[in-house]
Design the sequence.
């Protein structure tokens, strides 16, 4: 499995994110994936190569048709990292909220005397 840096690099581009989104509906041919994008096929293929290099997608060729499919395990690794970070920051923000709440006077008369 590719490392998180390459996964997030791959997802940093809107075309590649759109391809991943398209593939959530199931495997699709390169031609089908390329249709909504206004770019030359060789340019589009470079995007697919980036996604394949980090294991977000896998391609297979049957005859003349190349089909792409998501590799859910790779996306799950990125989601796990994001989930861990989200939990960390939620706890930090909860502690900050508790601290700030404790610092705020509850009685409006106390605030006027400060």
Sequence:
């Amino acid at each position: 499995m590719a490392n998180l840096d390459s996964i997030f690099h791959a997802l940093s581009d809107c075309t590649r994110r759109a391809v991943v989104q398209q593939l959530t509906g199931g495997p699709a041919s390169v031609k089908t994936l390329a249709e909504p994008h206004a770019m030359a096929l060789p340019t589009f293929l470079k995007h697919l190569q980036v996604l394949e290099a980090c294991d977000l997608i896998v391609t297979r060729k049957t005859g003349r048709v190349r089909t792409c499919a998501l590799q859910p395990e790779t996306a799950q690794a990125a989601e796990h990292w994001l989930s861990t970070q989200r939990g960390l920051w939620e706890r930090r923000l909860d502690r900050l909220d508790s601290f700030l709440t404790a610092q705020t006077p509850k009685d409006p008369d106390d605030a006027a005397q400060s």
Summary: The chain has a mean pLDDT of 90. The chain has one domain: 1-103. Helices lie at 4-11, 14-23, 30-34, 41-53, 72-103, 108-113. The radius of gyration is 23 Å.
